[in-house]
């Protein structure tokens, strides 16, 4: 049997001071990397197209056939931003657990290691509704102590690379005094060929390669992002294999439930799958890196690790010294704190773990300590050491989480110690010659105070982006009055409360986080455009008459913009397709090219809304879009019908029009014939 395992993961990207992911310019044209990889990989694998003879013959949920793990930080984001995808992921039967936030377990202190494992298992139980049997080790970094902890927490099997075990068998058992673990050993040649070679370019060639290997089981393990993000259309190769040759494939979970390993082995401690030097990539200049330029070094890794370890030690001491005063068993309470992180009640948590009834201030102090511990864990996500330079966004985020943890326990000495280490961490660029410059120029500007958030809320309220009461990011709020504005703010994490009285002079855009500022600007733009269209309605008619008899470039450009804005208004207001058609025909008659990149998403959302609300009009809308695409001068201007294809295919029992399927290049279902 053949097993494909995908390790799907993104680090925590939320700013700990606002609770939202801020704009990441390197992820353009998307707001952040989570959104970009969601659209390029996570969503396409839920709707992977099998194409034969230039027609979509099936749309496959690859998660139903794969063995996979999703990092908890990614699943929490998907649950919040794209819950419909989470339902598709849950259809898969091959899910494995992993740690809470992808730390290198052999480098973690024993207590933190157990927290990572326990939190990851609890998260799996919450998202998948069952106990996990398999566990994915971040970077497959392994040592015997970690495996003993997995056995303690009920894990039955793991996946490792060939060089991490002392056996040639693809499936073996490792014994400890505490019990045993079964180990799948992935096939290195095929896995490497898929991740870094060309094996995904042709599904039939890949299948021949897989069938030529007599290994049983044959497990392929790669980053899940390989299928669509790293390798464009890689998910389609899987869809072809799964839909045509599904009987050849299984999951690690299914295989493990039916087969007991006959071979035994030992693991090679302090090894990983992405560093031939063991686990040095995450603590020293070993020569392994991703990105960067020739001659770049990673001598910054060691002082970064040492500085953060000093911070971790100080924070752990402070946290547990404080928690011991209020909680019956601080470590047990810490293990259970993940229930709060996953949406559980703080009141229930305190009722279970506190020594006595706590005052409001005492309970806030307890949660300050627990969230400090959370952010300290996030500061050790492996990505912070993986790439080429200390100024990378992953390292910056780790340092921002460390800063938040320091602030929560109010330990300025920890920050002083950290910056001393960072000053000794050499960078590779003139702008960021060391870690201290990174901290001062990239980390500290991302620190927002409660007043900054109060000003943000007030501006969004005045701009009609937010209501008088609600929540943005990790902050709950209530707005009263007008001049001055009274704003009540409370943290959804620590439950700390603040009251601000703001005059209009206090309301500066300077400290409004970009992710919230976007909403204000978008509303202003929409308001302006509507006003502009209304004010120039008669002017547009005059322009049309003039352009029919004149080719003056300035007037042509003005009329083009005028028609684009009318099309924008019609699409956003869900107008009748006839109205949209009239605008497109008018542009065609005047020989005006009104195609624009910003119209693509509007057309798509318009079509999806028609599909849901007035499906009898969908065929007409699809014709309009295909005509629009036919006149586009480049593919960047064309409307991508992929999401609409997915919707129609998934709801194909509701659509009985054969021509609609043909227009969307979908194979006509038998029930429609």
Automatic annotation (TrEMBL):
UniProt xrefs under SUPFAM superfamilies? Glycoside hydrolase/deacetylase (SSF88713)
Q: Where would I find the Glycoside hydrolase family 57 N-terminal domain in this sequence?
A: 24-261
Q: Which UniProt keywords apply?
A: Carbohydrate metabolism, Hydrolase
Which biological process, per GO, is one annotated for this protein?
carbohydrate metabolic process
GO MF terms here are: hydrolase activity
Q: Name one Pfam family in it.
A: DUF3536
Q: Does the keyword Hydrolase apply?
A: yes
The record's listing under PANTHER family reads: ALPHA-AMYLASE-RELATED-RELATED, GLYCOSIDE HYDROLASE FAMILY 57
Hey, which family's this protein in?
Answer: Belongs to the glycosyl hydrolase 57 family.
What is the protein named? Answer: Glycoside hydrolase family 57
Q: Which organism is it from?
A: Thermocrinis albus (strain DSM 14484 / JCM 11386 / HI 11/12)
């Amino acid at each position: 049997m053949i097993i494909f395992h995908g390790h799907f993961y993104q680090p925590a990207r939320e700013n700990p001071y606002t609770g939202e992911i801020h704009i990441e310019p390197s992820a353009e044209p998307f707001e952040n990397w989570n959104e970009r990889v969601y659209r390029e990989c996570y969503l396409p694998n839920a709707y992977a197209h099998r194409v034969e003879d230039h027609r979509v013959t099936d749309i496959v949920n690859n998660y139903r056939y794969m063995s996979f793990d999703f990092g908890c930080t990614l699943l929490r984001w998907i649950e919040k931003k794209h819950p419909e995808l989470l339902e598709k992921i849950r259809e898969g039967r091959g899910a494995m657990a992993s740690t809470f936030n992808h730390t290198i377990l052999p480098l973690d202190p024993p207590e933190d290691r157990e927290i990572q494992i326990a939190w990851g298992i609890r998260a799996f139980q919450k998202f998948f509704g069952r106990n996990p049997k398999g566990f994915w080790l971040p970077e497959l970094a392994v040592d015997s102590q970690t495996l003993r902890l997995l056995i303690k927490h009920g894990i039955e099997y793991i996946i490792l690379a060939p060089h991490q075990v002392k056996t040639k068998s693809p499936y073996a058992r490792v014994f400890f005094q505490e019990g045993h673990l079964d180990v799948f050993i992935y096939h290195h040649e095929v896995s490497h060929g898929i991740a870094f070679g060309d094996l995904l370019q042709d599904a039939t060639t890949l299948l021949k390669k897989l069938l030529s290997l007599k290994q049983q089981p044959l497990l392929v393990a790669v980053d899940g992002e390989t299928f669509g993000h790293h390798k464009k259309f890689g998910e389609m190769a899987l869809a072809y294999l799964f839909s045509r040759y599904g009987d050849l494939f299984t999951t690690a979970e299914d295989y493990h439930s039916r087969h007991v390993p006959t071979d035994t082995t030992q693991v090679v401690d302090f090894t990983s799958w992405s560093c031939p030097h063991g686990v040095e990539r995450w603590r020293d200049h070993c020569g392994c890196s991703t990105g960067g330029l020739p001659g770049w070094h990673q001598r910054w890794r060691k002082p970064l690790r040492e500085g953060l370890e000093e911070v971790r030690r100080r924070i752990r001491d402070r946290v547990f010294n404080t928690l011991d005063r209020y909680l019956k068993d601080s470590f047990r309470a810490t293990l259970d704190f993940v229930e709060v992180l996953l949406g559980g009640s703080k009141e229930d948590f305190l009722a279970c773990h506190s020594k006595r009834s706590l005052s409001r201030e005492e309970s806030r102090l307890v949660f300050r300590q627990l969230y400090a511990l959370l952010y300290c864990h996030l500061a050790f996500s492996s990505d912070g050491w993986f790439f080429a330079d200390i100024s990378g966004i992953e390292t910056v985020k780790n340092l921002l989480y460390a800063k938040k943890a320091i602030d929560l326990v109010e330990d300025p000495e920890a920050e002083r110690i950290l910056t001393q280490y960072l000053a000794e961490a050499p960078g590779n660029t003139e702008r960021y010659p060391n870690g201290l410059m990174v901290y001062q120029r990239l980390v500290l500007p991302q620190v927002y105070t409660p007043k900054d958030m109060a000003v943000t809320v007030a501006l969004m309220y005045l701009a009609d982006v937010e209501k008088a009461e609600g929540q943005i990011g990790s902050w709950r709020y209530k707005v009263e009055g007008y001049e001055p504005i009274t704003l009540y703010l409370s943290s959804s994490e620590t439950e700390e409360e603040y009251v601000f009285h703001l005059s209009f002079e206090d309301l500066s855009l300077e400290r409004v986080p970009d992710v919230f500022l976007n909403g204000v600007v978008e509303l202003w733009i929409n308001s302006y455009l509507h006003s502009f269209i209304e004010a120039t309605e008669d002017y547009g008619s005059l322009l049309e008459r003039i352009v029919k008899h004149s080719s003056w470039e300035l007037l042509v450009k003005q009329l083009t913009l005028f028609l684009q804005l009318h099309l924008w208004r019609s699409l956003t207001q869900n107008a009748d397709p006839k109205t949209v058609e009239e605008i497109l025909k008018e542009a065609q008659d005047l020989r005006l090219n009104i195609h624009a990149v910003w119209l693509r998403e509007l057309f798509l959302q318009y079509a999806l809304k028609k599909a849901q609300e007035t499906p009898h009009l969908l065929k007409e809308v699809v014709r309009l879009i295909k005509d629009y695409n036919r006149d586009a001068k480049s593919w960047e201007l064309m409307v991508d019908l992929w999401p609409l294809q997915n919707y129609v295919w998934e709801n194909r029992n509701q659509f009985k029009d054969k021509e609609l399927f043909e227009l969307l290049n979908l194979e006509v279902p038998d029930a429609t014939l």
